[in-house]
Each structure stands twice: as structure tokens, then as C-alpha cells.
């Protein structure tokens, strides 16, 4: 699929031949990066789901434990102002959409392309180089936008996890005070 997409983008094929990029290595690198990102996301979600383990160290009955957990849940929610159910279902930040603008990547690419093209092939080369530079700058701008969206997503996930951890610490303190061991 990636190979098909890359072959259909004339700039990618042209850039690969012009700059000596091996397309097979490029495709392999993209596949590895996507796989790594997916595994990191799965592992991060598995760690984020961690809830403390509660052991009735003073022989409390299951009914007493359930009652204590419920009361400590309410106490932790009231004392921290955090409701883990609401935090877990809170929507993720909306990604930036639309054209990637504002960073000047296209203009920088055009200038660089024009200079390099002018050096290599004179006046007509400068025009071609500028056109290629604009395309390369556009790719860079879109990549920057994707990176900013991913960073915002990670930051939001970290804030959610910190809030849930604070709640669990408060709930654990309440339960420890009632004779439970928390891990």
C-alpha cells in the first residue's frame, strides 16, 4: 500500500532518484516507524489502565470491602475533585485540520530549491527547483502538523493519567486508613 502511494506521488519518486534515496529502505523505515508507534500506543494504554490492588489485611469480609471501597471512592472524588469515570471518557483534543500553514516551510523550500536549481541548471533550473522546493516544504509542513497533533494527544493522555493517579492515591490513603493493603 505504501509503495503504491509513494509511486503515485511524482515528487516522492523524483526526490528519491534526485537525492539517491533507496525507496525500499524508505518503505521499510516507514513500516518500522508505524509498527513502533502502534506498539507504544498499546503498551501505554495497558499501563494507563492500572488500578491499585486492594487486599483486606485485617480479614474484612467481601461485603465490608465493597462498602469501604465505595465510601473511599466518594471521599477521594470529593477531596481531589477528580472523577475517574469522567476523566477516562473525556474527549481527546481535536486535531488541527486543514492546510498546514504558518511555519514558512513552503517558502523556505522554494528559496532553497531555486538556489540549488539555479546553481545546477541556470534560470530554468531555478524555476524547477523552486517548484520542487514548494512541494517539499508542503510535505514538511504537513509532517510538522501531524507531529504537533501527536504531541497534543500525548500531553492530553499524560494529563488524564496524572489525574487518575492522583485519585487512586487518595482512594488508597483512605483504604489504608481502614486496614487494607494497597499495591
Write up this protein.
The protein is mostly helical and 183 residues long. The protein has 2 domains: 1-49; 58-182, no CATH class. It contains 6 helices and 2 strands, in the order αααβαααβ. A two-stranded antiparallel sheet has the order 1-2. α4 (62-80) crosses α6. It is rod-shaped, with a radius of gyration of 27 Å.
In short:
With 183 residues, the chain is mostly helical. It has 6 helices and 2 strands. It folds into 2 domains: 49 residues; 125 residues, no CATH class.
- Low-pLDDT runs of 5+ residues are none
Strand percent estimate: under 5%
Outline type: rod-shaped
Strand order of the largest sheet: 1-2
Overall average residue pLDDT: 75
What percentage of residues falls in helices of 4 or more residues?
over 70%
Number of domains: 2
Number of helices: 6
| Run of helices and strands | HHHEHHHE
Total number of β-strand segments? 2
The chain-level structural class is mainly alpha
Distance between the termini: 46 Å
- Major β-sheet annotation: 2 strands, antiparallel
- Radius of gyration (CA) equals 27 Å
Amino acid at each position: 500500500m505504501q509503495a503504491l502511494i509513494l509511486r503515485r506521488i511524482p515528487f516522492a519518486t523524483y526526490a528519491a532518484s534526485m537525492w539517491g534515496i533507496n525507496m525500499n529502505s524508505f518503505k521499510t523505515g516507514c513500516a518500522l516507524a508505524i509498527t513502533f508507534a502502534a506498539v507504544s500506543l498499546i503498551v501505554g494504554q495497558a499501563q494507563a489502565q492500572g488500578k491499585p490492588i486492594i487486599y483486606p489485611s485485617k480479614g474484612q469480609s467481601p461485603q465490608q470491602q465493597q462498602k469501604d471501597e465505595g465510601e473511599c471512592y466518594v471521599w477521594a472524588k470529593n477531596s481531589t475533585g477528580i472523577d475517574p469515570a469522567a476523566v477516562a471518557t473525556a474527549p481527546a483534543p481535536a486535531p488541527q485540520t486543514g492546510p498546514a500553514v504558518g511555519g514558512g516551510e513552503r517558502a523556505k523550500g522554494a528559496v532553497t530549491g531555486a538556489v540549488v536549481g539555479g546553481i545546477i541548471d541556470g534560470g530554468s533550473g531555478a524555476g524547477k527547483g523552486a517548484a520542487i522546493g514548494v512541494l517539499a516544504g508542503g510535505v514538511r509542513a504537513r509532517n510538522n502538523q501531524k507531529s504537533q497533533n501527536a504531541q497534543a494527544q500525548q500531553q492530553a493522555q499524560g494529563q488524564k493519567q496524572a489525574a487518575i493517579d492522583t485519585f487512586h492515591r487518595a482512594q488508597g490513603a483512605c483504604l489504608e486508613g481502614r486496614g487494607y493493603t494497597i499495591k
